[in-house]
Amino acid sequence: MSHDRRSIVIEKRKSKRKRRIFLFIFLPIILLTLSATAYGTFLYNKAQSVMEDSYNPIDRTTKRASAAQPDIDNISVLFIGVDDSSKRSFSTSSRSDALMLATFNKDSKSVKLLSIPRDSYVYIPELGYQDKITHAHAISGPATTIETVEELLDIPVDFYVKVNFNAFIDIVEALDGIKVDVPYAFSEQDSNDTPNAISLEPGYQLLNGEEALALARTRKKDSDIQRGERQQEILKAIVNRAISVGSISKYANVIEAVGKNMETDLTFDQMKAFLNYATEGSSINIESLNIAGQDMYLPNSSGNRVYYYELDQTSLAEIQTELKGHLDLSDTEFGQNTTDEAENQVPSDSQTDYQAEVESEY
Q1: Which domain holds residue 314?
Q2: In 10 A of CB 178, how many CB atoms?
Q3: The domain spanning residue 140 has which CATH number?
Q4: Are residues 205 and 180 in contact, defined by beta-carbon separation less than 8 angstroms?
Q5: pLDDT confidence tier of residue 341, bands split at 50, 70 and 90
Q6: How far is Cα of residue 321 from the mean position of the Cα atoms in its chain?
Q7: Which among 90, 100, 142, 300 is placed 20 to 30 Å from 83, CA to CA?
Q8: Which pTM value belongs to this model?
């Protein structure tokens, strides 16, 4: 393959990935837009009622001089994907399975998206030592996760959106299933964690809610990166199905399914401010960012080797600078983090016992 042709293929892949990410972030906003154009007042009021039920502000001190507002400020939103189930009682003690920090620049109508690997070895202020960032949510929910991300990136997290991965089930069922290409044969647990309850064969097929969730969760035959790509494909299939003519009558059920599986400190009026970004459509400037790093194994209190993702500090510093620039922040507006001081802290025996307990629980 020639260099020019390879470059075209890479750009097409990047463009496709941006569209997938766009659908993920703006799913609630797309639903609001559909409500306004399809059923008019009824669905708009339905969306408002459901989204207000999802409103869950966190008692925390803002890191800015004053609270940011989406309609007038450059802001950041932390998207937290949590792999909850009814067996786990949808508690805050579940780990975060996906973390994505999005910064929004109101002038350029651009978005920067940073994916934070779930096993990243970071300083968790609530614990006072370093651990996997996925454990921050298991400690005390979004508040600790937000605090940890602010410590890591040295920028304020203005808002959060927590999505329960079981939303797949309710939304897919509301749409009477979605068509997805299953890459290989596999068996996976269901939403009640029953082993091998779901079995799928490879090929393009119609999946129900439980089957869609199983496809989103499995990682037995590929990597976490490919797992993320599968989740994006499922989200794309959901939105494609939702915007099809045959699904117009199902919008009320879809909106309700999204609402009861979402938790956020964005008000309904604040969410409407994002329509300015959503109306940019495929022309919106969305840049995906990743922090470089490497695999690392450390012993726990039982002497077992535990996997972590060690972030490259140079790459992390570059990301911090880029996000601050996109938010138009200066160091005086948001203080330096304390990670450097904490890196040399060694967990006590009780702390390592906690790490082992969390590892064994999940």
Answers
A1: 54-166+261-338
A2: 26
A3: 3.30.420.590
A4: yes
A5: very low
A6: 22
A7: 300
A8: 0.75
